[in-house]
Write a structure and sequence with these properties.
Layout: E1 3-7, E2 10-12, E3 18-25, E4 28-39, E5 46-51, E6 57-59, E7 67-72, E8 77-82, E9 91-101, E10 107-110, E11 114-118
Parallel strand pairs: 2-11
Antiparallel strand pairs: 1-3, 3-8, 4-5, 4-9, 5-6, 7-8, 9-10, 9-11
Length: about 120
């Protein structure tokens, strides 16, 4: 059974920085893309960034230039470095992986989410 576990959320002041990580555990055959999403109170979940297994990175316009996604394929872990944070970045952040578990089929897995609050 594959699990994604996020960590690193918390409270930060506007203009500050925070780093998130998401580790995939279990018997994994292959991970394709890894992504971050977020959901603010009363809003729909929105895509934030994706890193392909090729290393190509894409970002939502709202975070471009401030957030950096990366991954360590040897550790099945992805990261999100968030700089110049704004109050509107406040949300629960979720990681997602396009994954093939050993002995199973290709599927999308989600983490449980981690809260990020940007406030003075």
């Amino acid at each position: 059974q594959v699990q994604l576990v996020e960590s690193g959320g918390g409270l930060v002041q506007p203009g500050g920085s925070l780093g998130l990580s998401c580790a995939a555990s279990g018997n994994i055959l292959r991970i394709y893309s890894m992504s971050w999403y977020r959901q603010a109170p009363g809003k729909q979940r929105e895509w934030v960034a994706t890193i392909a297994d090729s290393g190509i990175r894409t970002y939502a316009d709202s975070v471009k230039g401030r957030f950096t996604i990366s991954r360590d394929s040897a550790k099945n872990t992805q990261y999100l470095q968030m700089n110049s944070l704004k109050p509107e970045d406040t949300a629960v952040y979720y990681c997602k992986a396009d994954i093939i578990p050993s002995g199973s089929y290709r599927q999308l897995q989600w983490g449980q989410g981690t809260q990020v609050t940007v406030s003075s």
